[in-house]
Design a protein that fits this description.
Largest sheet: 5 strands, mixed
Radius of gyration: 27 Å
Strand order of the largest sheet: 4-3-5-7-6
Shape: globular
Structural class: mainly alpha
Strand content: 5-15%
């Protein structure tokens, strides 16, 4: 691995990233608390920490009065801090992930400078915040971003120690502390990913002798001191109830499951890292020697595929040279994570988040080697760039077409003309930016071009998660929750008639207790208690089953079902128009109050 050069100490260069980081802060926090929980797991943590703060029990998490041992305790403690400082709300709950997502930027910058150079570090700083997976999960109140942060911190500490053990001895202890804190976030992955990475790196680089320098005995002691006290407390307090859950749901069910092996996570890298995954694939193809390398001796009698295989083996062997150890480290980090979760056969796209930094580091290395007249300006860059610009143009045009249609269908949460103008302006911004990117490519200003692509991606992610998902998905809970908060005193009960999946989300967005009411007999009991209650149901159920009930309608909101574009739907659009074709995919919810 390369060490820092004298140019890295230029103070002016160190301050260049600051404006970009400030923009990232604005984008990551944009409309943070107004969007309902993205993921069902958010509701578990938001409600459990709320109960923890209200009861003062900071050892045992509870969700709806039931003990919740699904994850260790540290994420609950971290989320409790903003709850105590800023109040119990969605913004406070998500602020931990936002903070750690932004902290990734500083770590990736420092790590890229150590592994490569200052130019690669700046490019990594541009790319990471706009990657779909990183941006999305930075706005989730879950364990994933915290786990990824501590894994990145552990590997950064390892690199510091590896490059100069004499000057950075305490970095090794930082490596173990970071893993211990990560274990208190989400358990074994915080240990497995760093250990697999450094073991594979030492093995492939021919430095297994250095493996002994890691002071594993002291490391295990540090890990035990950090992670074991809470687990011991849980065993003492809850006995077999805790150990059975730990050994069953958290260990046995994750390892001894009957799921089939698949290449699911390879697809995750392509889908969730667009458009950067296009450049990433191109970089790997280029590195693995799809173009012939003159240093490889090929017989004239060799077939094309045999020569190609020889070239690939040669390229891989080159990774073992000291000059390429940084790239080797990043590739093993990525492959180790891929193989680990592929073998576990648990398919959750967010499990690939810890590998985001490895992907970005490889891209930073690839982009930092741009030379206008070299192979990097050939089709290996032109093809993914063209596809990326076409993707951005497609999104802009689709948004321009879809915006007026969905606006007329009743996206009522878009209040004020400014937001409507801003959403239309997003398409204009993307189109203008794409044109500018084309001019930068023609002028061979590659670093400015990469920065421009990163800016488009970041603004698009902020708009997508801050406004567009809510606009197109028509989150009914936005208006419904606001109506509950405006009309009630936050003590009335809310019943959901055959809308069970909304319970946790509605509880998070309001202070009302929410209950499932799935039949007529339960509805009678729920509404005959004398006090005012609220009922949320579909308009069709209200008109067909509860027409004669003395309910008062407060507000209505359109809700979109999942839409799958297939041949039948395309045919329906051609024959009946888009409005008629989409009718089966929408329904209206109504919020009612009892007399």
């Amino acid at each position: 691995m390369s060490s820092q050069s004298e140019d890295d100490r230029d103070l002016f260069f160190l301050f260049r990233p600051l404006p970009w980081i400030l923009l990232c802060v604005l984008c990551y926090s944009y409309n943070l608390g107004t969007v309902p929980p993205y993921h069902s797991d958010e509701s578990y943590y938001i409600e459990s920490v709320k109960t923890m703060v209200q009861t003062g029990d900071y050892l045992t998490p509870y969700y709806h009065e039931n003990k919740r041992f699904a994850k260790p305790i540290l994420i609950y403690w971290l989320m409790a801090i903003p709850y105590k400082l800023f109040g119990i709300n969605t913004t406070s709950a998500r602020s931990v992930s936002v903070f750690l997502g932004l902290a990734h930027l500083g770590l990736i910058y420092l790590l890229a400078k150590r592994l490569f150079d200052s130019r690669a570090a700046l490019i990594c700083l541009w790319i990471l915040p706009g990657t779909y997976m990183h941006f999305q999960i930075s706005r989730w109140a879950t364990t994933d971003m915290a786990l990824s942060f501590f894994i990145l911190l552990a590997l950064y500490c390892f690199v510091r120690f590896y490059q100069n053990p004499a000057k950075a001895p305490y970095s090794l202890y930082g490596f173990y502390v970071a893993m211990g804190l990560g274990f208190l976030i989400k358990g074994p992955p915080a240990l497995l990913i760093p250990v697999i990475t450094i073991t594979g790196f030492y093995w492939e680089s021919g430095q297994l002798v250095k493996f002994k320098e890691m002071k594993w005995g002291i490391g295990c002691l540090i890990l035990a001191l950090i992670s074991l006290p809470w687990f011991i407390a849980m065993v003492v307090l809850h006995g077999d109830e805790f150990t059975n859950h730990l050994l069953g749901a958290e260990v046995r069910d994750r390892i001894a499951n009957d799921a089939k092996f698949s290449l699911y996570y390879f697809g995750v890298i392509i889908r969730y890292y667009l458009p950067w995954s296009l450049f990433f694939l191109s970089a790997l193809v280029l590195f693995l020697g799809i173009t012939w390398n003159e240093s490889v001796e090929n017989s004239k009698t060799d077939s094309k595929w045999k020569r190609l295989w020889k070239n690939i083996k040669y390229k891989i062997s080159q990774l073992r040279q000291a000059a390429n150890h940084s790239l080797l480290f990043c590739l093993i980090w990525l492959l180790g994570t891929l193989i680990l979760f592929t073998l576990l056969r648990i398919e959750h796209s967010r499990y690939m988040l810890p590998s985001s930094s490895a992907i970005v580091l490889i891209l930073g290395y690839f982009f930092s080697n741009f030379k206008p007249d070299s192979i990097y300006a050939s089709s290996y860059f032109k093809v993914p760039l063209s596809l990326t610009l076409l993707l951005f143009l497609g999104i802009a045009i689709a948004h321009l077409i879809g915006f007026p249609f969905f606006l007329n269908l009743g996206s009522q949460h878009l209040t004020g003309g400014f937001k409507k103008i801003a959403l239309v302006g997003l398409s204009v911004f993307i189109i203008v930016a794409v044109v500018c990117c084309g001019k930068l490519f023609i002028k061979k200003r590659f670093q400015n071009l990469v920065a421009s692509l990163a800016l488009i991606q970041l603004i698009l992610m902020a708009s997508l998660h801050g406004d567009l998902i809510s606009f197109y998905k028509g989150y009914p809970l936005l208006n419904l929750a606001q109506s509950l908060n405006d009309n009630g005193n936050k003590k009335e009960k809310v019943g959901l008639y055959k809308l069970d999946s909304y319970r946790s989300k509605l509880e998070v967005m309001t202070a009302h207790p929410v209950f499932q009411v799935n039949d007529l007999s339960t509805m009678k009991i729920f509404t005959e208690k004398g006090s005012t209650v609220y009922i949320l149901m579909r308009v069709t159920d209200w008109k067909t089953r509860f027409r004669d009930w003395p309910f008062k309608a407060i507000t209505q909101q359109i809700h979109w079902k999942k839409i799958r574009l297939n041949s039948k739907m395309i045919q329906s659009i051609r024959e009946n128009g888009i409005s008629k074709a989409l009718e089966p995919y929408s329904e209206t919810l109504v919020l009612l109050s009892s007399p």
